[in-house]
């Protein structure tokens, strides 16, 4: 089945994982997040290590290890998490990234531009503390 709007599994793991860690308010391990998100523990580990490198999390090794937030949940928005996995969102007029359009009017009526702008604005306003 086709979907018009999708978010990659990695971005989904990142955002859900950060909320799970923020809610726990304690060291949370990969297995807990993998179980809660019904995803591969290997994929979760890879995504969380990326979030450590981006400065969102601190990791602790060992049998009682896991991840904890490095920043205040009020200062972490979903856009910053999303972009740390997917890269910066680019605002463009054309969903095909064409510089010159063969038509005098976009047949998509710039809906992709509107969706991108609204998505980015929404994600910027959503901080982790709202989901705790």
Distance between the termini: 33 Å
Number of separate helices: 5
Task: List how many beta strands DSSP finds.
Answer: 2
Which range does the strand content fall in? 5-15%
CATH class of one domain: Mainly Alpha
Most strands sheet: 2 strands, antiparallel
The general outline is elongated
Topology:
Elements: H1 9-24, H2 30-37, H3 41-53, E1 57-60, E2 66-69, H4 78-86, H5 111-125
Antiparallel strand pairs: 1-2
Helix pairs in contact: 1-3, 1-4, 2-3, 4-5
Briefly say what this structure is.
The chain has 132 residues and is mainly alpha-helical.
Task: Describe what you observe in this structure.
The chain is mainly alpha-helical. It contains five helices and two strands, in the order H-H-H-E-E-H-H. A two-stranded antiparallel sheet has the order 1-2. The model has no long low-confidence stretch (mean pLDDT 92). Helix content is 46%, strand content 6%. The protein has a domain at 9-89 and 127-131: Arc Repressor Mutant, subunit A (Orthogonal Bundle), CATH 1.10.10.10. It is elongated.
